[in-house]
Amino acid sequence: MNKVELVRPNELSTEDLALWARWRSADADMASPYFSPDWSQAVAKVRDDIRVAVFFNSEGHKSAFLPLQRPSRLVLQPAGGPLCDYQGAIGASGQMLDIQNLLKTTGASRYDYNNLLAKQASFARHAREIHVSRVIDLTQGHDAYLQNRRDNGSSETKRARKRKRKLSRDIDPVRLQPNCQDPELFEQLLTWKSNQYKRTGQTDVFNSGWALSLVRSLFETPSDDLGARLFALYAGDRLIALNLCLYSGTVLHSWFIAHNPEFSHFSPGLILFEEMIEHACQTGITEIDLGAGDYRFKLNLANAARPLCDGFVGTNALSARVRKLEYDMRDVFEALPLGPVSAWPGKAMRRRDLSRGLKLC
Q1: What is the value of pTM for the model shown?
Q2: Do residue 61 and residue 176 come from a single domain?
Q3: pLDDT (0 to 100) of residue 1
């Protein structure tokens, strides 16, 4: 059994951070802002339960880092919980981690995860679902991206340009304001997004104090490697839509997007993405990650996909057995021809997981 140690993110040594950076730079899938050590450190400023599990191999050398939070005595989650759209261990390629030893070390009965890199076998062998994050790969430039979308039969960019022309004609010329620092725009995003959560019956993550503090701090005081960048779409002087993206290096990750309901019929989010893609190509951004979910705009805008998995690793404790039963019940219902009823157990699980992740132990 190989050793596992737990440290606070701000206790990582200079050598640890250098090792982290080396492992991250060696794996293109680790370019996401969520894999920056600054993500764990930012979450640790608003939650006291954030730890980094440091795994050691049989020779006693460090082999991986796994950022964690502990929303309850029995459950471990990735640091940032439901706000963390990419999860996994940062380590040398092909490492098999002893997650059972992590659970024994912490006294927890299970490690829950979603949106975890499916190529990490230590977790994927326990996965209960495989899905993907939709990615806009811009490494070949804007023209090549547009040609790829045309070749694959996507009409979304054409539809975006048509809606943009209509918005410019009916209201005022469209313009993108990147990298907005205006706090009033940030507050407007929160208001629009909270109203959207209310309209759709979803949990408002901004009602959680630590979650709001995290988003606000990443917008107001970014680090050298991680921050939140706000993009605004205007028609003349009318604010149409806003998109808050996490960024690290040359990668943007769309985090919270919302629009003025008055202009919904113009597909403002789609126009905003179209403008952002062109701006990204002009400023050296190589990737815009749209996150998980098979929404129409993601399927049509994305020209790449990154496999992810959901599941848990558990002991034989009651909490882990209950979790298995929840997944089993979800799978049974989803296989039945019950229409919308088939999705109820899965929705209940996601809502409960979201609520658990937003809590402080």
Answers
A1: 0.95
A2: no
A3: 62
